[in-house]
User: What shape does this take?
Amino acid sequence: MDVFGTGPKTIFFGTLNRAMRSRQKSMTSASVAFAPSFNSMKAHGTSPHFASGKATTAAVMTAGELLLPVAAVLKRDLLEGAYIQADETPVPVLQPGNGRTATGYLWAYRSGPWQPTQAVVFDFAMSRGQATPARFLRDYRGVLQVDGYAGYNAVLGRDEVIEAGCMAHARRNFVEEAEERKARGRGHRKRSADSRSLSKRFFCE
Assistant: This one.
């Protein structure tokens, strides 16, 4: 793949360096700040003669392809560990042909902050269903910390996987119930199903 796109074959070395540096900034912004390549190019003032939108997108795709072996090693090391934190977040996905966006999901898996191998692996899917984490974690054995979303139930139902909850989400249920009591002025009342279920689960900060 020609990451520099079509253009003049003879250019000054200094100009090429400037174009490459601009494209590097664009790719960094797209990866770190989740900014589209076009917006990144505008922000960094990239010359359209050396970094068209098509060329910059091609460069980003090529960089991603070159990093696939690195991602595979990170995933291997992550799954060989005994502890994983998992979460998912929606992302807009442009549908080719109609100019509209659909909702996809980035599933994030990271090692514990105390583990010798620090890894964060993203798995993209158009679905938020149980099949996605079940596929990614099919060989995993250990502790899986999640926020209580039912999409992880297929994985947590396996004997070799131990569920760890999230204290932030646990506190949220108690805070919401306390605010509800205060608003209604009922004082003491029976605990909600969400609050009762907290005592049955193991939580990690």
